[in-house]
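Hey, I was hoping to borrow your eyes for a little while. I've dropped the whole record in just underneath, so have a look:

——
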Amino acid sequence: MFNLETYIQNLISECKTTFNTRLLYMGLQGSYLRGEAHENSDIDIMVIIDNFTVTDMQTYREILKKIGWYEKSCGFICGKNEIQNWNPLEVCQLKFTTKDLLGALTDYLPPATREDETNYVKISLGNLYHELCHRFIHADREKNIAKFRGTCKGFFFLIQNLHYLETGDFILSKKELKEKVSATDRRILEFSDLPDNYNFDEAFSELFDWCQNAFSRLEV
């Protein structure tokens, strides 16, 4: 049976032994951090290695195979220089959705402003809006119905960050976020779990209207 604590201990130990002082940071992300993991969930681990190379990637892959559960392994790995020059639009999301396991992530993240976070939300909203409109016009009805709920999963992260902009409160789990947001936002968060016989026309129109209103919420 999978045990997250044991897995993390083994992974950190192997990485320390292998990368030595070049191992700067490890953190937990994803559904296990949010308390939403199930038996098929990935294990999302963030790793920062100084002077990161392709050989390091190969080595890390072998470590993951060695400790077991390789099929569940996932995450984000990068070099020190890369993360220090990362897009500031993504800094807020990284900071709040990563739990430090080794080192402190904030020691390596570039500075970011409220404007950066606002632009991150605008880009996320724009991408989802475009996806919905493009598929509605250029794909058949069956594909729209089949893909709709999958697209709606992305609205969790959008509403998570939009709520943070509006309240200053970054909420990690979907369950708690549902409890804190408006009834309208809560309804959108539930769309990814719609039953198979859901009413596509009603759901699409409701989500389209929500997107239009969300753009207005981001006006400076």
